[in-house]
Amino acid sequence: MAVCVVLSAFTGCGQTDQTLAGDVSFDGQPIDDGVVLFVPTDGGGNNRQKVGGQIANGKYSIESGRGLASGKYRVEVTWMKKTGRKSSTGDGSQLQEDKTQVLPAKFNSQSTLTAEIPAPGNKLDFQLKSN
To answer: Which runs of consecutive H residues, i.e. helices, occur in the chain?
Structure first.
């Protein structure tokens, strides 16, 4: 135990990269193209860092080795939907379909979502609601 206490100041003693997966929906509709980002609430203490995962077809996963450690996080979810409009790329060589953020700021730039990541093999779902 004494070794663990001494090492905890440097490594977070017992903290290992976590695997995390789950479902993400907004008003019951699966988010088909987005990102979920976990931001440490203590500013990255114990070597924690921001870690994100792609959302596809209402599901996301973050594999071990990406740096998601146990602890408390603020969670940001973005959902980019195609607008139907096309615009040229920076060099004007091709057209791309425009996308826009459809989730309210309370789920991303001004997120009030929080999560605690306790142990490996977790499943954490986010059922977001507009009201």
So the answer is: 2-11
Nearest of 39, 35, 34 to residue 49 by alpha carbon: 39
pTM, rounded to two decimals: 0.75
What's the CA gap between 58 and 78, in Å, rounded? 12
Structure tokens at 19: 């695997």
Per-residue DSSP letter, 42:
T
Residue-wise pLDDT for 43-63, tens only, equals 555 567 899 999 999 999 998
Nearest to 130 by CA among 28, 35, 56: 28
d(CA 6, CA 3): 5
Nearest CA to 122 out of 34, 38, 57, 5 is that of: 38
Q: 62 CB contacts (<8 Å, ≥6 apart)?
A: 18, 19, 20, 21, 38, 51, 52, 53, 68
